[in-house]
Amino acid sequence: MVTKLLASRGATIQELNTIRKALSLLKGGGLAQSAYPAQVLSLILSDVIGDPLDIIASGPTVASSHSIQECFQILTTYNLLSDMPESVHTVLSGSPVEQATQKDFSHVHNVVIGSNRLALEEAKRQAEDMGYFSVLLSDTVCGEVSTIARLYCLLIQLTCLSATAGNDLLKDKVEGELSSLVAKLALPGLHLRDILRASQVEKPICLLAGGETTVQLRGNGKGGRNQELALRVALELHRARATADGRFLEKYEIVFLSGGTDGQDGPTEAAGACCSQELVGEAEREGFNVEEFLNNNDSYTFFVRFQSGHHLLMTGLTGTNVMDLHIVLIRAKGRD
């Protein structure tokens, strides 16, 4: 109940795990302490941005770096303090959890064997083998899906504009908005120079990024963050293309994909979805109102009904989770 309430308000995975650690005997280093003095080897699959060992799986073999006061602050931020069960208040009202010293965990060896970065690096190799000029943008993408959709729309526009003669004023405008948004999102390691360099090659382009977005629930539809992100990117591209300045996009084939590496996006059977810049126009001609589906957080229903689910990413459960992968493919029309 606690994590569902937090997730519905847009809490990050870091915030969710901070609360989980405070409410568990095994999380936050509890498992390692229970095993002491036996040697402990922990093989870790990271599903958290930045791979912080004390946050992944709520850190059962890592000393906790958070206090009870931080838990109260998180619950207050999302206006959930009064909605918590009495049992939660009882636990959190206890004495602050003292941070264990490093020597308490000298018997523990933690090794990250899988992460979003590793998945992206392998995807990059695969794309290059398929003939794409690939750029790994970031493995720390996070934020509300509508903002991230705007980010990807601007990245796509800048990539295409950089490969198109003229349009210098529009390119400067797009690059300026993109730079401001990147700074606002505080995405470390996302360098626009890599995109500009990619635009100068003759190969089709593959932009790769990963992380974990959040969805602000406003409706009662069915969907997941990856499907909603794909649908919002499609809408952003549709709007950009509909303007007089956006006609340059018609010269390119563009595909965006967002998928969860665990094979399940929200309470759906899909891992995510893909879209093109033509998707919204095609949907409108078939009688679908994309904005209505988005306003109801009903992206899965849209993708199931639209073209018989052709745009859904169906992998089945993978048995692992290293967050989400975002892939953009750009190819100039008429170029093999």
UniProtKB/TrEMBL annotation:
Domain of life: Eukaryota
InterPro entries: GK-like_C_sf, GK_N_sf, MOFRL, MOFRL_assoc_dom, MOFRL_protein
Enzyme class: transferase
Catalytic activity: (R)-glycerate + ATP = (2R)-3-phosphoglycerate + ADP + H(+)
One GO CC term, this protein: cytoplasm
Pfam family, one: MOFRL
MF terms (GO), sorted A to Z: glycerate kinase activity
Ranges of residues in domain MOFRL: 205-324
Residue ranges of every copy of the MOFRL-associated domain listed in the record: 2-92
EC number(s) from the headed UniProt entry: 2.7.1.31
Family, similarity comment: Belongs to the glycerate kinase type-2 family.
Name of the featured protein: Glycerate kinase
